[in-house]
Design a protein that fits this description.
The chain is an alpha/beta fold. 46% of the residues lie in helices and 11% in strands.
Length: 409
């Protein structure tokens, strides 16, 4: 039966409101909701935003104060001297959760290590079982990482662009392909899956790496990361204005023209540092390339205190490098540390994550250039993404220490 509304019917008297384009309010709300959903889907990162080794720190700290693997979030953060509201703390907890190392968000009352996470951090876990657990968390449990592992296991690692082209077609929803690939490479290296064979970086199957691991072998343990604070703006009088937000100051043992130190610095600058920073749009400046008249020491100090990022090469144990590193620590500004594998990191700065680069021979260096570039890019990405706190000996042991720069004239 068809029912007709009379002219006096309430529904007839109050038809749905329409917009100028003819849509009703309900239709507009649906459209807005759809756009928000699509925007969230586009913004979703299908992988954690930090290396597995960094995320592992949270579970290791929980183990120290709660052997059963469960602790109140605020108790844990107080123990490790981290602010509950800082973005670096939130990212640490979030990434640990994305790797399924721990359960509980950065707002949860309790944080708990997952069963697989316990296997990955407990000292009592047999090394082979620990490595298997770490692989399941760091690679197998993350869709784009697992896709890359399945594709390149038992193969030579191709050029970065080749990997990027494959991942773009193989996995939907990966917005930042460079970041995803860099993290996969860093995780694979940490697990021992990425090794140099016959002069090429090769991804080994996890079964082979586990089989070759001696029962008494100790796996690598995670160190600490160095979160950062924003750079300071400002310009001294009488100088051309510099956009410091786009500057990376490269501190390195330069040496005389033709010296081993100069050749080393040029190699790292041209083939590692500059390629790693290209995607971030940062201009890399070394002290001898400042190219301005005036007192060179004053220009170096200005770059130390104002550059958005500093990469410090600790190779050769150069005293000038450590002097400049100390000043950057005092300014509480972001630093990424690199060093030759054959050099020892001094005790005072060995608590900060440092990228070790094997330069013992061309046959060991060249095949790993892409891996080292990914490691540097990953550390830089973390620094630029966490602009609230910095971790160095001064901030840890003298948190009230502060450097004030003069205001620009």
């Amino acid at each position: 039966m068809i029912r007709h509304l009379s002219a006096n019917s309430p529904r007839a008297a109050n038809p749905p409101a329409t917009h100028r384009n003819g849509s009703t309010g309900k239709q507009r709300r649906r459209l807005v909701k759809k756009k928000i959903t699509e925007r969230k889907a586009r913004a979703f990162r299908p992988y954690p935003a930090a290396p597995f080794e960094d995320a592992l720190v949270l579970a290791q700290e929980i183990q120290k104060i709660a052997p059963d693997g469960k602790v109140r979030r605020l108790t844990l953060l107080k123990s490790i001297n981290k602010s509950p509201t800082s973005s670096s703390t939130q990212m640490l907890i979030t990434n640990s959760g994305k790797y399924k190392i721990t359960r509980g968000s950065y707002r949860a009352e309790w944080l708990e290590i997952t069963p697989e996470g316990l296997l990955a951090v407990r000292a009592e876990t047999p090394p082979r079982d620990r490595l298997t657990a770490r692989f399941n968390l760091a690679i197998a449990g993350i869709t784009p990482f697992k896709t890359l592992y399945d594709e390149y296991s038992r193969k030579k690692l191709p050029a970065h662009q080749v990997i990027k082209d494959f991942l773009e077609t193989a996995v939907n929803g990966v917005d930042n392909l460079d970041e995803c690939i860099d993290l996969f490479i860093v995780n694979a290296k940490f697990l021992g899956l990425l090794q140099t064979i016959a002069g090429s970086e090769t991804v080994l199957p996890i079964e082979q790496v586990v089989e070759e691991l001696q029962p008494s072998t100790q796996l690598l343990t995670s160190g600490t990361t160095a979160p950062i604070i924003p750079s300071r703006d400002g310009q001294p009088s009488g100088r051309p204005q510099e956009d410091w937000s786009n500057v990376c100051f490269y501190i390195s043992p330069i040496g005389d023209e033709g010296s081993e130190e100069r050749q080393h610095s040029d190699l790292f600058l041209n083939h590692l540092v500059e390629p790693a920073l290209r995607e971030f749009g940062l201009k890399v400046i070394r002290a001898d390339k400042i190219g301005e008249s005036g007192m060179i020491t004053g220009q170096i100090l200005e770059h130390l205190f104002r550059a958005r990022l500093t990469i410090v090469d600790l190779s050769f144990g150069n005293p000038n490098v450590f002097y400049e590193l100390c000043l950057r620590h005092a300014a509480k500004l972001p630093i990424v540390q690199i060093i030759r594998k054959q050099d020892k990191i001094p005790f005072d700065v060995d608590q900060v994550r440092t990228i070790s680069i094997d330069t013992s021979g061309i046959y060991s260096l060249v095949p790993q250039l892409e891996t080292y570039r990914s490691e540097i890019a990953t550390h830089v990405r973390q620094a630029l993404a966490n602009p609230e706190a910095v971790s160095n000996p001064l901030t840890v042991f003298c948190p009230a220490f502060k450097v004030s720069l003069p205001e620009p004239a």
